[in-house]
Amino acid sequence: MQRLRLAETLPAGLTVWQLSLDLEAPVADEDYRLLSQAEWQRACRLRHHADVVRAVATRAALRRLLSAHTGIAPEKLVFSENAYGKPLLKSAHGLAFNVSHAGGYALIALAACGQVGVDIERCRPEAELASLSGLVLSPSERRYHDSGRSALPFIERWVVKEAVLKALGLGIADHLQALSVSPASAPPTIYHLEYSLPTSSPLQAWPLPAPCGYAAALGYAQS
What we know:
By secondary structure, the protein is of the alpha+beta class. It has 2 domains: 2-113, CATH 3.90.470.20; 119-221, CATH 3.90.470. The protein has helices at residues 29-32, 37-45, 49-70, 126-129, 133-136, 139-146, 154-168, 172-175, and strands spanning 2-3, 14-20, 79-81, 87-89, 96-102, 105-111, 115-122, 179-183, 191-195, 203-207, 214-221. The strands form 4 sheets. Strands 1-2-6-5 form a 4-stranded antiparallel β-sheet, with helices on one face. It has a 3-stranded antiparallel β-sheet with strand order 7-11-10. The protein has a two-stranded antiparallel ribbon with strand order 3-4. A hairpin with a 6-residue loop joins strand 10 (203-207) and strand 11. The radius of gyration is 18 Å and the shape is globular. 35% of the residues are buried.
């Protein structure tokens, strides 16, 4: 597990960890032992071995990181969910987290205060994603995208939006079009966000260093 180097301008207390996954390897027994019964049962219901590896290894890594911050044994951490299914840590003492995985990689974001969201996706040709533009893009973004003048690749907008909405703990599909993303610099070190979302918290988002063939972003909602 590797801690990503983030820009010094990010708020204090934000950390992001990258996990490289061997999707063909057996699931480690020490990872399985850290899971709750409900987590173990969810993993057993997955049909493909690669999905089991992603689920178990990422959850075990999350438990280890949270244990290091809280002092609670990783197997004794207790989670709940909000109304939209976002996992929360009971007795977190202000610590927030979020997880995303795609392909052979997973990201885990932690925040000492505020709320954090992270997303990683495999890059695909724009033509394969064209059918999703009506779901993902806001009206203003769609105008620029359709005219070929978009300042950001489609997949980059997608990961930024998912990261921000995950930070807020909202339903992703219901709010994608209420958020517009544009670069604040070239290349962007932070994104400019315009939104009509049910929140009073200031929102921020940044690109994350991602493996070749992937795009990733970090979203943050100040408390």
